[in-house]
Amino acid sequence: MSEIKVGDEVEVVDEIGARDYSVPRDSARMGRRFRVGYVAPDGSIRDGPHGYFFPPGTLALVHDVTAPEPALVPIKDKGGNVLLPNPKAAFGAQKPNLALIPPVALHHAAMAHENGAGKYGAYNWRQNAVEAMTYVAAAQRHLADWLDGAECSGDTNPPVHNLGHVIACCAILLDAQEQGNLIDNRPPDGASAQVLERMKAAKIEAAK
After folding, report:
1. Same structural domain, 16 and 74
2. Among 51, 50, 77, 72, which Cα is nearest to 62's?
């Protein structure tokens, strides 16, 4: 099969391909994402965001969403009739798309949470307030260990990936904060963001 190009008319071949690429899977090239536009109920032409469902057999023109301001085109069936996306998809597109989280990250985070649950009890931070800096420090230690070449922590059996520990620490911080159970013992606000911008400006100036 030849490579799909922007402007080509393609047929959606299955529900999974339709959901994201709207083109046959084996024609999607690395670094390029394909979507198709649709005609909204008010008659305007809009981009079809991730999660919109187009039935197999749909004919569509391809545009490249990696390019700036891609052209928007209507979705039509083989008879030339304009198709609207599944209404449920419009509601789903308003919510965070959990499918974008790489499953491998969830697997490693689950191993870390399982290890912690065995030591301290599952969701223990919802029962007892926890200090923010405890988990900030733990996350930084695990990240430093991984940066220095240690894939897994040395005190867990079975082994738990250091990056899984980092994800788990961040997840606990977020959940405890939302539960109102986080003791925010971070230091007073510093100037990190301002210093970073100043350094960035200096590097840009030096490169001229």
Report:
1. yes
2. 72
